[in-house]
Amino acid sequence: MALHVPKAPGFAQMLKEGAKHYSGLEEAVFRNIQACKELAQTTRTAYGPNGMNKMVINHLEKLFVTNDAATILRELEVQHPAAKMIVMASHMQEQEVGDGTNFVLVFAGALLEHAEELLRMGLSVSEVIEGYEKACRKALEILPDLVCCSAKNLRDVGEVASLLQTSVMSKQCGSESFLTQLIAQACDVYLCIIRSAILHGSGINASTVLHGMVFKKETEGDITSVKDAKIAVYSCPFDGMITETKGTVLIKNAEELMNFSKGEENLMELQVKAIADTGANVVVSGGKVADMALHYANKYNLMLIRLNSKWDLRRLCKTVGATALPRLDKRLVPGGGATEIELAKQITSYGETCPGLDQYAIKKFAEAFEAIPRALAENSGIKANELISKLYAVHQEGNKNVGFDIEAETAAVKDMLEAGVLDTHLGKYWGIKLATNAAVTVLRVDQIIMAKPAGGPKPPSGKKELDDDQSD
């Protein structure tokens, strides 16, 4: 008869055999921080025009030689749960802005590196998190003041090409002038809007070419024809907000029944009236149209059109010259580390005015911004400390637009606005916000619990094995 060996008392005895758990600063927090630092260090050397390439071979044995952080992360398939949070923040940056993925990784890694120093100094996790959140809010307040210029006409090929140079330079340094012209021209020409529509009931002689858009649909409301239309296009349903949870309402008399939906009706009328007050007389919706919204649209003489296809919505927007407002931000900030140094300078000053222990976290948050110009300098073979000292000295004199001269052979600085090295305000805004949220999320984790991996045969990991299985 085998002896039963009891499990050690504590949390471990509640888990299945083979499960692992880690808790506390040393086992959980510092372990997570170390994983995120290693990931940030991997992509940090690929930051900027002089960044190094990475050779990545994915699970299908496909070779990638690139310095694009989004491609590297997509093919690496990171498994560590804490590092995955940083990867998710980078993916969100790519979806929201389309650029600045490496900025999120480098900045989040620097934040966690400085957070580790603060924790070893004796600060609690809550004090570090509170300081980081305060500093993040202050940075987002300061950022609009650092805007150095704005785009005047986003449909001008020459102007758009000049604004694209910084983004293209980080991938194809030296060829940015030629490539940006091609990219701007490609963005201006959109041949996919050419379509044919077949209407039954007549012959071939009734065919015609219409310089506009044709949809084989009827309007939703009573208004079927509008001249000199002003069109508002929405990709969302034309309906009111609905809560995720279901509620039960007890109605005691007829008056309560009459007044039950009156607030919803008033809110819907205000929304439809606000659209009509702008001068729009045609509303195109990418989702369902509520009956109540249809009633008030007829009341204010609005034509309602429902398009279920997102491709039709895009073609319509291109045809009528509509611009996606949520993505439109013409503001630009100086690049080359100028914005980061100015933010570091102002947030350090803000930290000195805070009386609590979170002032140390605020100052470390400001110091984390130095990781961006430091990465640019190190990847260019320049002494980073010398460059950062020069940048601080120039910014103390009030020159907010001065950044690192990437073309110089020494730690030289120059005006980024005059050099045309500009970054988007939107990219910096979301980069700071997402990196801070990811770092704070990692710091909030004080315990790691991993269940025992499931048994059974593992799936094939390589393309060759798949080919062999198919050939058999």
UniProtKB/TrEMBL annotation:
It comes from Ophiophagus hannah (King cobra). PANTHER family: CHAPERONIN. Belongs to the TCP-1 chaperonin family. The keyword Hydrolase applies. It is found in: Cytoplasm, Cytoskeleton, Cilium basal body; Cytoplasm, Cytoskeleton, Microtubule organizing center, Centrosome. Its main location: cytoplasm. It catalyses: ATP + H2O = ADP + phosphate + H(+). Keywords: Acetylation, ATP-binding, Cell projection, Chaperone, Cilium, Cytoplasm, Cytoskeleton, Hydrolase, Isopeptide bond, Nucleotide-binding, Phosphoprotein, Ubl conjugation. GO terms for cellular component: centrosome; cytosol; intracellular protein-containing complex. NCBIfam families: chap_CCT_theta (TIGR02346). This is T-complex protein 1 subunit theta. The gene is CCT8. It holds the Pfam family Cpn60_TCP1. GO terms for molecular function: ATP binding; ATP hydrolysis activity; ATP-dependent protein folding chaperone; unfolded protein binding. Component of the chaperonin-containing T-complex (TRiC), a molecular chaperone complex that assists the folding of actin, tubulin and other proteins upon ATP hydrolysis. The TRiC complex mediates the folding of WRAP53/TCAB1, thereby regulating telomere maintenance. As part of the TRiC complex may play a role in the assembly of BBSome, a complex involved in ciliogenesis regulating transports vesicles to the cilia. Residues 453-472 are annotated as: Disordered. It comes from the Eukaryota. CDD domains: TCP1_theta.
